[in-house]
Amino acid sequence: MAYYSDLFNLKEEKFFKNLALSSIYIYTIRFIDFALITWVLTNIAKSPSSIGFLVFVKFAPMVFSGFISGWLVDKFARLTLIRAVIVLTSMYLLFWSIYLFLFDPSLTVIFLLTFISGILISLDISSRQSYLANLVGRKNLKAGIALNIILLNAAWFIGPNIGMFFMNFMNLDKLYLVLVFVNSINLLFLYKMPKLSISRSEKNKYSGISKGINFALSNKIIFSTLLIISVGNLTAFTFESMTPYFARFIYNATPEQFSLMISLQGLGALIGSIIFFPLLIRITRPGIIFAMSTIMLCIGSFIFTTNNSFLSGCITVAILGAGTTFFMNMHSRILLSQTPNPLRGRIQGLAQLGIGFFPIGSLLVGLLGDNIGILNSMRIFSYVGIITTAIILIFFKELKNKL
């Protein structure tokens, strides 16, 4: 057990347990919702571009509102924003329940509501990660980041399977109504949590949106990390965005197989983050590991296109999920540890701008797939990702520094 001593040291953090419970709660709700909506979408649209566009509208707010949400996180109390997102998520789920009770789902409404959920995700990511970095002590920050990603991966696996399981017994409108009440319970976990507001003098010192941009441009390790986040999300996760398409239309999966396959990336990431937890904490050169994990994910996306059975596809997705553990941990550690607290929200906003290239890549790979075939489209994106990441790694020597 000493191998995981850094994990157990988190018990010293008085309020971390409450934040962890709140996090896995909202993460699970988020993945249940996305699995249900993806299943509904594949019942009324059957092209790669439709799946790509769903992913685009869900994560596009990170492109359009990520930096604004980051500025809000530095401007207002982060705990207040976390609570606000929970309340707004309940309202979003309630609207889905009412809509599905009254109408048959349409593509326009699916895309519109998914875009709204993406805005809530954007605000929650910036506020929750910035709050976490300020809540735990510096010596426990690496472990706190790693455990938060473990919770995200756990939700990634259990969320879709919970959603598809209960869909066998309940109509979607009733299931969404249940989710409204379940999600609202999350507010109890945050009762009496410290606000951890930023002092007025620090706010004044780092005030203005331009301060975050200038800091990112002047700090080469931050800037190069943001570049790889953008390239990686554009090119290395085509397997993730197209997994629903592969499951439904290439492997002809049942509802149970469908939920299993789209959740296996989460299971692989969960197992990987637990097994590699001690290693993740002890990595001293996160920049180079981050770049190499991006290249490996591109290679893995290429391998995913060569699978010819549901089983081999599932195995590949799970292995790639384990690989995402390094990608997510390393860039989170670099950005949170190398950024002053008053700027963390804006730098997280820039990171979301980079993550926003994931929906752009999903849309482009789907559109290109409609014309040249989804397998060829994904392979082209893999080639581009490998070459571009290698160039960034060579050009920015700071990525090889010890941190």
Secondary structure elements and their pairing?
Elements: H1 5-8, H2 16-44, H3 48-59, H4 61-64, H5 66-75, H6 78-102, H7 107-135, H8 141-167, H9 172-184, H10 186-189, H11 200-205, H12 209-218, H13 220-235, H14 238-250, H15 255-275, H16 277-282, H17 286-304, H18 310-337, H19 344-355, H20 357-372, H21 374-395
- What would you report as the Rg, rounded to the nearest angstrom? 20 Å
Q: How many domains make up the coordinates?
A: 1
Q: Please tell me what the overall shape is.
A: globular
The DSSP helix count reads: 21
| Strand residue content | under 5%
Q: Could you name the CATH class?
A: Mainly Alpha
Structural class: mainly alpha
Give the overall average pLDDT: 87
Q: If you consult CATH, what is the topology?
A: Growth Hormone, Chain: A
Question: Could you spell the SSE succession in H and E letters?
Answer: HHHHHHHHHHHHHHHHHHHHH
Profile the largest sheet.
none
How many DSSP E strands?
A: 0
Query: Approximately how much helix is present in the residues?
Result: over 70%
CATH architecture: Up-down Bundle
